[in-house]
Amino acid sequence: MQDHATDTVADEAKGGGGRQYAEDHAFLRAPVDASRSAEQAGAEHGVKISTTDLNIYYGDFRAIKSVSAVIRSNEITALIGPSGCGKSTYLRALNRMNDEIAGTHMDGTVLLDGVDIYQPGTDLVTLRRRVGQVFQQPNPFPMSIYDNVVYGPRLQRRLRRDEADEIVEQSLQGAALWDEVKNDLRKSAMDLSGGQQQRLCIARCLAVNSEVLLMDEPCSALDPTATFRIEELMIELKERMSIVIVTHNMYQASRVSDRTGFFLLGELVEFGDTPQIFEDPRDERTDAYVRGRFG
Amino acid sequence: MSAEGRHLIDPRVTEKFAFGLLWLVMFIIAIPVVGIIGYMLYRGAGALNWELIVAAQGGLYPAIIGTTYLVLLTTAVAAPIGVGAAIYLSEYARPGPLLRLIRLAIINLAGVPSVVYGLFGLAAFVILFGWNRCLAAGACTLALLVLPLVISASEEALRQIPKGLREGSLALGASKWQTIRRVVLPNAMPGIITGLILSIARAAGETAPILFTAAFYSLSDPFPNSVFDPVVAMPYQLFVMSTEMPDVADANKWATAFVLVALVLGLNVIASIVRTKLRRRRW
């Protein structure tokens, strides 16, 4: 798995700006990670989130059309599709971040552990702690690394010094950032590199014990090396949480994810095990997209 | 003009011409600024000394203290209201006709002549509230005058905070107010403070709003004991000196004017230092 990932990262680096999916099918030729398919064949992971007939509207525009899908625990689910296809909108429905955008409304259901997160009286604070989000542009707060990590926990209650110290160490360890910053915890988070900032944002979610991590193109602002580290981290993190990643990068989807959903014009065209989506897509639109014929 | 005619003038020539014209405009703007300050210095230099500034009797000291009281109280009134209104307008208010109307009203408030504020202050605070001519009435009047300034500067500062920071906070389970308190406001502070200092500078130099509401001239008892006492203020003292005191030496009047302008200028300089110092931030 790692070798494969390293190769494709290197390919990407060589490819420079124009990602030529059509010419370069490394991700299709690469053998599917054996342990991963064994795991998939064996244990079915529990359902973490399920959406049923989910429609999302921006004013009159129907951005998401009757999407029904299941996101499982301890798996990485990748959402791919061309720009404007609604995959980010779908992602943001899972922690109700769309509520922050004026003029959006939705129907259908989103269940988290079987409970409707859109039912009246849902506590957004609890929901968003359980379902954390990492954004496209790393967005550490302009404060110290330490304060960034304990930002979430401190919203709830005052922390004793030793509690806070422990949360910071554990979360940064979890986000594979501890070794790089343990001597600079008081340094401004703005001085970190883009990749470190993104891992800090992941650490922030770990600090509030997120059970689901929504990642909205988390690597699109990062260089290949930093991208690779995030991907490694994602594979580590899925042992303890469920991850949904929106990505424009099909190599990335094929490298890290267990299941992939292909969105087009607000529709979930196809959703299945990642190897199947990339090697044996059932819908011709999926086939065209993963072979780089459009998008 | 024929089609070819349009190309007859060499672009290098028009470039030079445009540059020259713009430079001239800049120069015309600079002349009065330099001229006014220079002329004040020239006329007032003879009287400009430490004695003039610190003398309790007939000097500028009471006026400087009075103006300081005025602007501090003005800030105390205008800052919470202005910043609060800005937070509401930029963070909470739903876009719509009502919000547009409020914004329009604020812009228009900024264009109301200051003497109108003075008359309003006289009618409202001095007469209606029965405060008489006093520090509190003057500060409230000045606060009304600078509110539009404070609100727009604060709104601008709040708008500068990237959406990503707000979303990052909300996505960690912060409420809107927690997000504003812990992320938005601390980072908008440099801009807000800059706006406040500029407002203070504006308030410090205004005469008309305090003319009927706060200012008086007294040699015997110039210092207010409470906010309900009248004050001696720099712009008003200058006004009285120039219009009602023919026996005061001209040099004194010019020196007073210079000190007032220097005070306002100084505040503006502080504002721009604060802005450059604190705004050197990356997101």
Question: What this model shows, in words?
Answer:
The complex is a heterodimer of chains A (295) and B (283). Chain A has 295 residues and is of the alpha/beta class. Chain A has a single domain, classed as P-loop containing nucleotide triphosphate hydrolases (Rossmann fold, 3-Layer(aba) Sandwich), CATH 3.40.50. Chain A has 13 helices and ten strands. Chain A has helices at residues 2-15, 26-29, 34-42, 87-93, 124-130, 145-156, 161-174, 178-181, 194-207, 224-237, 250-256, 274-279, 284-290; strands at 47-58, 61-72, 76-80, 104-112, 115-116, 131-134, 212-216, 242-246, 259-264, 267-273. In chain A, strands 6-7-8-3-9-10 form a six-stranded mixed beta sheet, with helices on both faces. Chain A has a four-stranded antiparallel beta sheet with strand order 2-1-4-5, with helices on one face. The longest helix of chain A is centred in the N-terminal third of the chain and has 14 residues, at 2-15. Chain A is globular and about 55 Å long. With 283 residues, chain B is an all-alpha fold. Chain B has one domain: MetI-like (MetI-like fold, Orthogonal Bundle), CATH 1.10.3720.10. Chain B contains eleven helices and no strands. Chain B starts with 10 loop residues before the first helix and ends with a helix. At the A-B interface, helix 5, helix 6 and helix 9 of A face helix 7 and helix 8 of B.
Brief digest:
The complex is a heterodimer of chains A (295) and B (283). Chain A has 295 residues and is of the alpha/beta class. In chain A, 40% of the residues lie in helices and 23% in strands.
Write the layout of secondary structure elements.
The complex is a heterodimer of chains A (295) and B (283).
Chain A (H helix, E strand, L loop, with lengths): L1 H14 L10 H4 L4 H9 L4 E12 L2 E12 L3 E5 L6 H7 L10 E9 L2 E2 L7 H7 E4 L10 H12 L4 H14 L3 H4 L12 H14 L4 E5 L7 H14 L4 E5 L3 H7 L2 E6 L2 E7 H6 L4 H7 L5
Parallel strand pairs in A: 3-8, 3-9, 6-7, 7-8
Antiparallel strand pairs in A: 1-2, 1-4, 4-5, 9-10
Chain B lengths: L10 H34 L5 H5 L6 H32 L4 H15 L2 H15 L6 H25 L3 H9 L4 H30 L2 H4 L22 H11 L5 H30 L4
Helix pairs in contact in B: 1-11, 3-6, 3-8, 4-6, 5-6, 6-8, 7-8, 8-11, 10-11
